[in-house]
Structures
1.
Amino acid sequence: MEKSDLAGNAVTFLHDEGYMAAFEAPAFTDESMVIIGGRPVVDLSGDWRFAIDPFDTGFRQRLFAMPELAPEDRTAPYDWDPFDGDTVPVPSCWNLMRPEWFLYEGGAWYARHVDDPRPAVGRAADQRVVLRVGAANYCARVFLDGVFLGRHLGGSTPFFVDLTARMAGGRHHLLIHVENTRRPDRVPCHHTDWFNYGGLHRDVSLMVLPRDHITDLFVRLVPGQGVVADVLVSDHRRDHVRLRIPSLSLDAQVEVFGGQGRAVFDCAPELWSPETPVLHDVEARWGDDVVRERIGFRTLAVDGSEILLNGAPLRLKGISVHEDDRETGRVTSDADIERRFRHARDLGCNFLRLAHYPHHERVAELADRYGLLLWAEVPVYWAVDYVDAGTRADALNQLSELVRRDRNRASVLTWSIANETPDTDARLAFLSALAARARLLDDTRPLTAACLFNQESRKIEDRLAGLVDIVGINEYFGWYDPDYADLEAILAQYDLGKPLVISEMGADGVAGLRGSAARIFTEEHMAAIYDRQLAILGQAPAVKGISPWLLYDFRTERRQNPYQRGWNRKGLMAEDKQTRKLAFDRLARFYRSDWGA
Ligand code: GCB
């Protein structure tokens, strides 16, 4: 019978189905986040050793703890060697690395050596080493030198692991187990309409920090107060952080005590807007540590049914986007993001809905620079388990990580807490907690969600609308729902007294499939739906924004008819991100009409 000495229990590991119990805690959460703030990082991108592990053999047999040996020096049999084998680049999605991994759902091991990045001499003892993983879908477990350090849940937000205690000079072995199993108690749950890419799909890096360092900085303009700065630091003693904003001639000391401090400065910075995306250099300095941010100051408010940016009513000319690429999956780049922005601009957009999970942090950084507004979202989508306490904690944490990561970005207009979720008491309690968390972490932005409308009464009766400031609805009249009269009725009866955004509308159309507008999946049919939709939406005073579904065709396992073949075809452009469908120009024309003026 098979044996494993590493497993510590010889043959019994074969009979132990509780083998994961030791790997569920501690959890890496938003509490361990550290703002990068322009500090240098050691980039761990590049080739890592990689092995899929569908049966969790690495855990069952504790192969993660194998000592490093050359293959010819090993004497005991083993099923996987963390020091040997295939490599894949990080970041990447394993699905696109090998055809046989395309639909792989389960666990996989990433491994590499890392050198202690602190200088060998001098003040190294005073410095901390923190691992930052940009995103790993969905659950990541981190091991250093064969020792389990903790796990993170959530596939689209960064997490941080303090390695200091285990990294005393020299070379170490870093292992990250990533697992993308869809489960009903996860966020999103096991059923979505986007591809379940697995892996370390964003950058992994090491940060070296002084022992005393700034962990967070949140600087924004608050109407009636001025510039408000919140600083979090790693120590609880009473001290001062120096804050400088040269463009405002501001050079001040912010008192910190108990790990935090707040200061309010009565000043009137030049304002950020999509037309004038002015950014200000902000610097916080505490002892040896310096954090630098570029921040746009603007005010946002919801007044009745208007969204006000710097006091002026705003009309959101938007487009929805997934973070998806034919070649790289969820892995994105500045070039990819900038191409997305160019196409949005070609449409005449000032707004992007980043569906349905937090996109790469570079999106908001670049949107700040280019002057685009963003809807940022967490994947509370469809049938999440609204009862399970662990699921709620996971959703709250993903929201916290998103808000804390991006709240300094002027481009982020609104946090979206849910998409098309059922109106139950459990869901309402779950989303009330999320709304409260978002408001606690950020006092400057309206909240939104894609709410449901009642098909019979043709009204938005979803109780979620009461929790948010901007009401979103996804509607597919002309496509899933036949009767445009229902859309007209929903708009005519809208009386919630809050801005209404059509967060999705659209239709599938196969690029190059031309024919009668009566035939579904043709470009003509898709364009005809846009024409009718835009004619109706353009007449509805309640509608303050539109973000049709969506810019590019995207991969999704559940769409398998001959027109789709694994792709959602509602893109205004094909998945090559070049070919425009007829509907592209229809939307571009609409955004340049009186409605968009
Ligand atoms: C929706 C969902 C979106 C889907 C889309 C569709 O309502 O929010 O995730 O991809 O419809 O294409 O059906």
2.
Amino acid sequence: MTPQGEMFDVKDGVLYIEDVSAVELAERFGTPLYVYSRGAIAARCREIREDFLERWPGRAAAAYAGKAFLTPEMARIIEREGLMLDVVSGGEFFTALKAGFPAGRIKFHGNNKTKAELEEAIGRGVGHIVVDGTDELDLIEEICGRLGKRQPALFRIAPEVEAATHDHITTGKRDSKFGVPMDEHILYPLIGRAIASESVIFEGLHFHIGSQLFDNAPYLEAMERTLDVVLEIHRRFGSAVPMIAVGGGFGIRYTAGEERRPYLYFLDPLMRQVETFCAAHGLKAPAVGIEPGRSIVGEAGVTLYRAGAIKDIPGAVKYVSVDGGMSDNIRPALYGAEYEAVIANKAGQTASDRVTVCGKLCETGDRIVDGALLAEASRGDVLCVFATGAYCYAMASNYNKIPKAAVVLVDGADASVIVRRQSYEEMIACEM
Ligand code: LLP
């Protein structure tokens, strides 16, 4: 694999992340190690500002989906980059507030928000709640009544669109656990109640159709259905829909066969579609909101491992084992996700050895890269797995009592720890 993108370089046969050698990072901070490029995160945020927010002033909004990777430092980066933040749990909300992220710039998601989570979010002045399902409105009204608040809310609908991705990460289908069903007798009474409510400010509609998508067709299809709902809301209640949020899902490059598409590719046609539809029906065009997670951090992060046992099973497979595995990256085991890797200290050598990079966990499915093409590996080599910035640290576990890896942020020639490596003591701190 040739490292792709502005954040990588190869000098004297060694892989560099921005201006720092990956081998030095492994030595200094230990392995496994998640490494993020500040520059790569900034580049994606800049693209969103220039090609979306500034291109459609007053009509575009962008919130980073924290579920992809959220730590206090990441929340501060997102705030400095001028984006809003999406959270899906009390824990993510807590992390953001702890980092000083303004509550009013946070959107709270979730198909089963608890009463405690809603109370905390509303009490602290969360910007938006994305209502998901029919009985959440009762809870919100009760809490707002008690706290004397009026809460801006978006309503998530299930637009019944099939998106081409792994079944576990499609979310807009009819049988999805997410969103309010589009059935007329379910959707409109709920929206009608929200519009009439003293506790809720109806801010619009939301859909999210899936993740790791490369085609804009399902977005346009979902938007078409949503615009019909906008028209129907106008017809039934005489109300405007201030915003339509289209979720995240923009695909990234994990392997050579994939190419991240610019935000423009997805968003320009969506904006035009909204404009054309609303002009034709004499409606005020709703603003469009996006919630990218993976496309902001996915390619900006890598994982460094130290190679250990190497096992060549004649006629079968050659394993290169690393000192982490499904505890720091569950995605291959969970979704059959594919990655590419390079031996950081042999980045100048031809990669012609076909191997399986496996982890150290007690599980056959604990593989990070199947059929990786690497230079001849030896014990002690530093392996770099690319594009692990989204949903890896976020989904890490202590399976097999493996402590969580540290996270380092590289900015030019600087490297700083933004998440300390968990110690054994910390790992069992809550265990009586
Ligand atoms: N907004 C909503 C409402 C979502 O449900 C999600 C992701 C996003 C935004 C962000 O989507 P992104 O831009 O990151 O694709 N663990 C899976 C991904 C699950 C995504 C769930 N929702 C994975 O590792 O592929």
